Input
Amino acid sequence: MGKLAFAAKITHVPSMYLSEVDGPGKGKRQSAIDGHIEIGRRCREAGVDTIVVFDTHWLVNAAYHINCAPHFEGLYTSNELPHFIANMRYEYDGNPQLGRMLADSANKHGVVTMAHDATSLALEYGTLVPMRYMNADRHFKVICISALCTSHYLWESAKFGWAIRRAIEDDYEGTVAILASGSLSHRFAQNGTADDYRDKMFSPFLERLDHEVIQMWEQGEWPDFCDMLPEYASKGHGEGFMHDTAMLLGALGWNHYDRGVEVVTPFFPSSGTGQINAIFPVSPMPKAIDNIGRPRSPALAGGRL
Output
C-alpha cells in the first residue's frame, strides 16, 4: 500500500529564476524560493520518493496526459517569457511505473488519460521552476501532469485527482507528494506595462478576491470554495483555468476535505498575478465519493469550466 504524504499549491513564477541573477530582480523572490526549499525539506522528512506536479504550463486539448519518462535532461528557454527564463539546465529522473498506474486508475474510473513513458516530451516550467529549488540533488523522481486543459470540466479534473489518490494508495508501493503548480488569480499586466506591475496586482478586485480565497483555505471552508471554484477560475482569470487546483482538491477529498492550509510563502503579487506557497495537510479520504467535483448548485455544473 502506498501513501500520499504531502500536498501543496505552489507558485512557479519565472521571476524566481531572475531572483538568482544580477539585475533589477535579484533577490526579490527569495521568500518564494525559501518556500520551495521548505517544501522540499518536508517531502524528504515525509519519506517521499516521487513528486507529481499538476503543471498549468502543459496545454492539452483532449484527454489527460502524464509525462512519466524515465529521465529528463535538457536546456530550457521559456517560449512564453524567453527574457525571464533562458538556457536553464535541468536533469531529473522520472517514474514510469507510477505514471502508468496513475493513468490506469483514471481510465478505470472513466477519465480518459494517457501515460507517456517512451516519449520526447520535455518538462514545462511549471515543473522545472519548483524542481530547481526542491530537487536540485535529484533526490525525488518527478512526474508531470498536464493541467492547462482547454476542453475539460473542472469536476472531471477533480475526479482525475481522486483517481490519482486511489492509484497511489491502492496500487503503488511508495510515498508520493502532489503539487498544484499554478497561481491564484492570473490576469497579467497589459503589454508595455509589465515593469510597472512586476510587484503589483492587476486590480484591487483580484487582490481582494485572492485574499478572501486564502482565508477560506486557512479556515477549511471547502464545501463553499469547491462550489465557487468555477466562478473563481473564470472571474479571476485562473491559470490553466485552475484545473491544477481541482486536481489537488480531488486528491484530498474535494468538499469532504477537512483541513486548513499552512501558508509557507505569504501571498505576493507578480506581474499582475497572485501567488502563494501553501501546504494542504493530507487527511484520510473515503474510498468512494458521490459526485466528486460536482458543485452543490446545479447552476454551476455546466459550461467548459
Summary: The longest helix spans residues 154-170. The CA atoms of residues 93 and 238 lie 30 Å apart. DSSP finds eight helices and ten strands in the chain.
